[in-house]
Amino acid sequence: MKAFKFKNILGVAGLVLCLGVAPAHADVTEVRLARQYGIAYLPLMVMQEQKLVEKHTRELGLSDVKVSWNQFTGGSIMNDALLAGALDFAVAGPPPFLTMWSRTQNTPASVTGLASLNAMPMYLVSRNPETKTVEDFTEKDRIVVSGIKVSTQAVVLQMAAAKAFGQDKYDVLDRLTIAMPLSDSMAIMLSGKGQVTADFTVPPFSYRELKQPGFHSVIDTYGVVGGPSSTNVVYTTNRFQEKNPKVTQAVLNALDEAQKFITANKQEAAQIYLDITKDTDPVEDVVEMLSDPKVEYNLTPQGLMAFADFMHEIGTIKTKPASWKDLFVTQMHDLPGN
To answer: What is the mean pLDDT of the chain?
Structure first.
């Protein structure tokens, strides 16, 4: 990967020279990044804790670049900030990212993916022993997703419904979904009270729930999509990356280093997660999550076209990329994405 980074650094430097812009003034002096809560966002936490963006901006000849981290609880607010120019790099699941990409094409605010943040399965967990497939849900059930119709979980549920009931009934389970923070849904699920009988959830919540007697997984994203899929994508606007090639490359290099650090140093990465989130899980439990063979931290975008094909077919996005490469910066194009 050192050769990969070196090639891209030379490419950025060459672009700056070709544009005739003095390197010291080519990029912004402050970069603003978003993150959310959960083990999926660990690479961003490592980047923040180890000041990796600062490190890589210096390596690319940019001194004293300020790095600001912004915590968001929802994708819509984050996207509004990105489009308003109040945020430089956003992070969301493939469906929200694809929706943004499609809506902003051929506009001054068009967005492009930087890289995958991670890949890990999300699980539709039920506490009802009679619910073995999506066909077993009834009007008595309520399924929690992070966002109705638009979140990754909601779209995967639609994909599963299309397979079970027919493509024209892809939204038949939407009426059973409710949106709330997944930490809240876990508390309700564990209490055994209320209407919530299932939630389409993510680590660390899925790990905690599936350890409970009577809780089981009905479907997971990997099974529905047909293989590993990126849980989150880091993205920016085309105008930002065009005006700030070195900063963009520095963020990409920092993300790459953070992902490699997590893979090689699970214990230390787990402690960083606990220190930042103030979570009360034992460090051994976090290491167990990171050691799951289905969990990957790397740059390669996965599963994007499966989402794009489905979302275009049901009309959620009007513009469909011809290839996953249409969605991402050219630095990603040599990777085995899909």
So the answer is: 90
